[in-house]
TrEMBL record, chain A:
Keyword Transport attached: yes
Keyword NAD: no
InterPro entries tied to this protein: AAA+_ATPase (IPR003593), ABC_transporter-like_ATP-bd (IPR003439), ABC_transporter-like_CS (IPR017871), ABC_transpr_LolD-like (IPR015854), MacB-like_ATP-bd (IPR017911), P-loop_NTPase (IPR027417)
Domain ABC transporter: 5-229
MF term (GO), any: ATP binding
Keywords: ATP-binding, Nucleotide-binding, Transport
Name this protein carries in UniProt: ABC transporter ATP-binding protein
Stored SUPFAM superfamilies: P-loop containing nucleoside triphosphate hydrolases
Lineage: superkingdom: Bacteria
Length: 229, 838
């Protein structure tokens, strides 16, 4: 199996006034292509910062990130954006749909950015898969939380990503809606053979992935395969 | 890069934000409308002046002189074969049937003048037969005022003529000019019979030529210097129209600047609205970047939106401007000596659209730059960090904005320094308003009334919570109020100035051209009417013979001379007396009260004459008084307030020298009522047909009328600024609507009553309205004081009107706009509101 994400000696420090705040320290781990991987830890442990660095949304203070074979430190912001557009999908806790775009437009944007001709057809197909065929022309504000997250799931898969980053995907949903969305996410993931990196503090949810990385105080506590836990 | 996708995204996003974008557009529309209407109008004015050049003068060229032409001048005049001639003078006329008198300009015409343009009369044929029938054409307004009809008679000096018709228009004359001294045209053969062209009376001889094929430039170059030496002047239709064009250019520049201020105000609106708009879009931009959009792509999406609004706003503004300029000829009709035909040209329209585009982009540039620097990480958390690069980009953007504004004001003013002063002034005003707004917020924060009630605390907190619009609102309200108040105060300074001389002690009736042998009788007529003689001023006319021992003939040919040429041909009206008047002040030398004729005569000259003649105390000047040369020496230099409506003189002789020189007198009195003034005028005109009476009360009414018309135009332009200000205000308030609604709904959910929410919002906007308009009025007071001191040189007594009308009016307007923002919250349930706006 090839490694899709290689993290080595990663650190992140923020300056807050005259003080330096270390959020992540010496983080190293790999994620295999097609693997499902979760990052767990208490609030403030650095999960979200790690996800941001791994996906190339931010630059590290120390260490390297290699995503889909590219060392992110060698890419500028626009090159990283292009890499994300071609290989990465995102699902966020608070959905992060573009409020001025309809469900259909939200899902087609990543493909449109690639210049794909079949963007709308593919977006419709995905919205049908997530059960929103009759809501495609609705704006996010006209959809419920669960529906919005399903649109976000459809958007995440629209560009056939090699790797999908999910940040607390059920954090803003009730239990029933949350488990439906998770089921959908895992089903689509399996169907597409995508690598899934998920942040959660729901241990039951983490247990559904193949590997769990535990963070505390910006450091790795454990990194084990689920079968061993 | 996929351009069509960028346009698609810009359109998708704009569709959902159209209400907000429409407000941005409104900010730019009015400014563009103002600029385009004035630009089009200025262009039409220039075109019309050029096109109507000949009919503005009525001839191809003319020669004029203020005395009977001397032999040499007459030879030139005759050699060119004049096609028409005229002598004109100011005189009192009487309408025997109506028992009325009036000061008019009498034009004695001979020949078929005008050759171009029309002499418009009622009845029409009067223009063609007044010469043969021997009638007078009388100003149409004057006919109306005195209820005169064709066939009534008019007494001019010693003759009485029938009125042939009403004079509606003659080339080269504007309605405003004739409101001071209306025009009466008579055949020139009757002029001698009036016996009004006596010694001392002011007159002008004009000789008109119709020579369409003449080389006017060559003619002017060849003859002007010769004629000038003979106290005559050659004017061609082209030089007259270009002089006229320059005069209106100044008016155009002033109006352009007022329009530019409206545009700038609109731009402040754009900047503030786009600022909040982009702030709200940051998350969406971060999402786009997260999904793989580049910095350029996300920047361009919003740039396309703003550019689209700019073009559309520019287009709508241009259309409104085109419509509005149809109004200008109606408003300005009385100021223009010709009919204005409006044509629509492409240049101002293209410029309007381009200006809309450029100004929107320019003023949206700073907030737009933020899209470039938004990190995709903002999706996960708010960073709010600004990189060094972003600071650098902001600096460059500000520099571009300032440079561009300077370029536009230079384009409007065509003068580097004026443009610099204007831009400087604008920045100082903006700077002062912004600093005071910031300082006020700081004060509120520092001395926050912690013990105050809930509503007061909440409303004051709103002034400096995140996304507040305090500074923008204060600048918009302040600038609008500042403009309208300055215009108001300035108008009053001008009115006060014109009102001088209306007090009981000063004269309001001035009789001129009184011959020495008539003085006694005029004085007794005053006394018989129980009116005082306030002034009895002798006038002696003379010309300069030499300055500092150099004769005027030598000076005319001396190209290195520092002396202004007008002096060399000027007929000076001088007086002699032993004391200074109230409007005079000695600046240098000593005032000589009296002396005998055999010493070197010690004269006093005005400051401007000293400057133009390049002389100082002790310098010699020789005057030619009716052929007698008088050796004088400058004993003192006076500062003269020429603006007072009383006779002022540039040259004053001491008593004891000119008493026996040929002279005439000016006598002044004060008539307390219009009726007594009219009675005196009637009596004087009947007894002394050569004497003219200037009624300052009437003159003041004319000045007031002109000022009212001018201020109407200024107010019209200020209206654009105010309207733009209101739109900026609505825009600024509306952009924070959602945030305000959310806060109000939360407050309501927590148990706040409608009354409390209403009070919080009302107090906040009342505070903004009062502070903004107060700042505006106070700044206007300072600028008007400066204008009064340095431009008008007048004491400044501020009127209370802005405090009584503008302050409460504008505050109320701000309050209403503010309250309209939360109307929805007050009228529906919290959940309903959140759903609707979520």
């Amino acid at each position: 199996m090839t490694k899709i994400l290689k993290i080595n000696g990663l650190g992140k420090t923020y300056s807050s006034g005259s003080k330096q705040l270390t959020v992540l320290q010496n983080i190293s781990f790999d994620v295999q292509r097609g693997q499902t991987f979760s990052i767990v830890g208490p609030s403030g442990s650095g999960k979200t910062t790690l996800l941001g660095l791994a996906a190339g949304l931010d630059t590290p203070s120390a260490g390297t990130v290699e995503l889909c074979g590219y060392d992110l430190n060698t890419l500028n912001e626009d090159e990283r954006a292009q890499l994300r557009n071609k290989n990465v999908g995102f699902i966020f806790q608070d959905f992060q749909l573009l409020p001025t775009l309809t469900a259909l437009e939200n899902v087609s944007v990543p493909l449109e950015l690639q210049g794909a001709k079949n963007a709308v057809a593919r977006a419709k197909e995905l919205l049908q898969k997530v059960g929103l065929a009759n809501r495609i022309h609705h704006y996010p504000s006209q959809l419920s939380g669960g529906e919005q997250q399903r649109v976000a799931v459809a958007r995440a898969f629209s560009n056939n990503p090699a790797i999908l980053f999910a940040d607390e995907p059920t954090g803003n949903l009730d239990e029933e809606t949350g488990s439906k969305v998770i089921q959908l996410l895992f089903d689509l993931n399996e169907e597409a053979g995508t690598t899934l990196v998920m942040i959660t503090h729901d241990l039951d949810l983490a247990a559904k992935t193949q590997q769990i990385l535990r963070l505390k105080g910006g450091k790795i506590l454990t990194n084990e395969a689920t079968v061993n836990i | 890069m996929n351009l069509s996708w960028l346009f698609k995204m810009a359109w998708r996003d704009a569709k959902a934000s159209r209400a907000r974008l429409l407000l941005f557009m409104a900010s730019i529309i009015l400014g563009i409308a103002a600029v385009v209407s004035i630009q089009l109008f200025s262009q039409n004015l220039t075109d019309n002046i050029q096109r109507q050049s000949k009919s503005l003068m009525g001839a191809d060229f003319l020669i004029d002189t203020d005395q009977v032409p001397n032999e040499r001048a007459q030879a030139i005049i005759d050699s060119l074969k004049p096609d028409a001639s005229e002598v004109n003078f100011v005189s009192m006329v009487a309408f025997p049937k109506k028992n009325g008198t009036k000061l008019v300009r009498v034009r004695g015409l001979q020949g078929d003048f005008p050759f171009y343009g029309d002499l418009e009369t009622q009845p029409v044929q009067a223009a063609f037969n007044y010469q043969t029938s021997g009638g007078a054409l009388v100003d149409a307004t004057l006919m109306l005022q005195y209820n005169l009809n064709a066939g009534d008679s008019i007494k001019i000096g010693e003759i009485t003529l029938p009125i042939a018709g009403a004079l509606n228009a003659i080339p080269g004359n504007s309605a405003v000019a004739s409101s001071v001294a209306p025009m009466v045209i008579i055949p020139s053969r009757f002029v001698a019979g009036t016996e009004l062209l006596q010694f001392g009376s002011r007159k002008e001889y004009q000789f008109y030529y119709k020579q369409p094929n003449a080389d006017l430039i060559a003619l002017e170059e060849k003859l002007q210097p010769i004629l000038e030496a003979e106290n005559a002047d050659l004017d061609t239709h082209t030089s007259t129209s270009s002089r006229l064009g320059r005069r209106y250019e100044n008016v155009g520049s002033f109006l352009n600047l007022t329009a530019f201020i409206a545009l700038l105000l609109g731009c402040v609106g754009i900047a503030s609205s786009v600022n909040i708009y982009i702030k709200e879009k940051i998350k969406a931009i971060a999402i786009l970047k997260c999904l793989g959009a580049s910095r350029k792509q996300s920047f361009l999406i919003f740039l396309i939106q703003i550019a689209g609004i700019g073009i559309l706003g520019g287009l709508i503004g241009t259309l409104i401007g085109v419509g509005l300029q149809q109004l200008f000829p109606i408003v300005l009709k009385e100021f223009l000596p010709f009919d204005l035909t409006i044509t629509i040209t492409a240049q101002p329209i293209i410029m309007g659209v381009l200006l809309g585009l450029v100004m929107s982009i320019l003023f949206a540039l700073l907030p737009l730059l933020r899209t470039w620097y938004v990190s995709p990480l903002e999706v996960l958390r708010f960073s709010g960090e600004t990189s060094k690069q972003a600071h650098k980009a902001r600096f460059v953007a500000i520099a571009v904005i300032v440079l561009f504004l300077y370029a536009i004001s230079y384009w409007l003013l065509r003068d580097f320094l004026f443009a610099l002063a204007f831009i400087g002034g604008v920045f100082i005003t903006f700077g002062i308003l912004t600093s005071i707004a910031t300082f006020t917020m700081h004060l509120v924060k520092k001395y926050f009334p912690k013990g105050a009630g809930f509503t007061t605390r909440q409303s004051l907190l709103n002034l400096f919570r995140p996304n507040n619009q305090t500074i923008v609102l204060l600048v918009a309200i302040g600038l609008g109020t500042f403009l309208i108040s300055t215009l108001h105060f300035t108008k009053y300074i001008l009115m006060d100035k014109a009102a001088l001389g209306q007090t009981a002690e000063s004269a309001n009736l001035i009789t001129i051209d009184v011959q020495p042998d008539q003085v006694g009788e005029v004085v007794s007529t005053f006394k018989a009417n129980n009116l005082p003689v306030l002034d009895n001023i002798p006038l002696v006319t003379m010309r300069l013979h030499s300055i500092k021992n150099e004769s005027v003939n030598e000076l005319r040919t001396d190209s290195t001379s520092m002396i202004k040429s007008w002096l060399l041909n000027h007929e000076f009206r001088t007086t002699y007396r032993n004391k200074l008047t109230d409007s005079e002040e000695i600046l240098a030398g000593q005032w000589v009260t009296e002396q005998s004729a055999d010493e070197t005569i010690q004269i006093s000259i005005s400051e401007n004459l000293a400057e133009d003649a390049n002389v100082t105390v002790g310098d010699a000047m020789v005057f030619n008084v009716q052929g007698v040369l008088m050796q004088t020496e400058v004993a003192s230099i006076r500062k003269v307030d020429w603006t007072t409506l009383q006779p002022n003189f540039s040259v004053v002789f001491p008593a004891g020298v000119l008493e026996s020189a040929p002279q005439f007198h000016v006598l002044a009195t004060y008539a307390p009522t219009e009726e007594r003034s009219a009675n005196l005028q009637r009596e004087l005109v009947t007894k002394f047909p050569n004497v003219s009476v200037i009624d300052l009360r009437q003159m003041f009414a004319v000045v007031e009328d002109i000022l009212n018309k001018v201020s109407w135009i200024i107010n019209f332009m200020a209206f654009f600024s105010i309207l733009t200000g209101i739109i900026v205000l609505i825009g600024s308030v509306r952009t924070s609507k959602y945030q305000r609604i959310k806060e109000s709904v939360l407050l309501r959910t927590l148990g706040a009553k409608n009354k409390q929410i209403l009070s919080i919002t009302a107090l906040e906007y009342l505070f903004l309205g009062i502070l903004g308009s107060l700042l505006g009025i106070l700044l206007a007071l300072v600028s008007s004081l400066l204008l009064a001191l340095f431009v008008f040189e007048e004491p400044f007594t501020p009127s209370i009107l802005p405090f009584l009308v503008f302050l409460p009016g504008i505050s109320l307007l701000v309050l209403v706009i503010g309250l309209s923002n939360i109307r929805g919250v007050l009228m529906s349930s919290p959940l309903e509101v959140l759903r609707k706006n979520g």
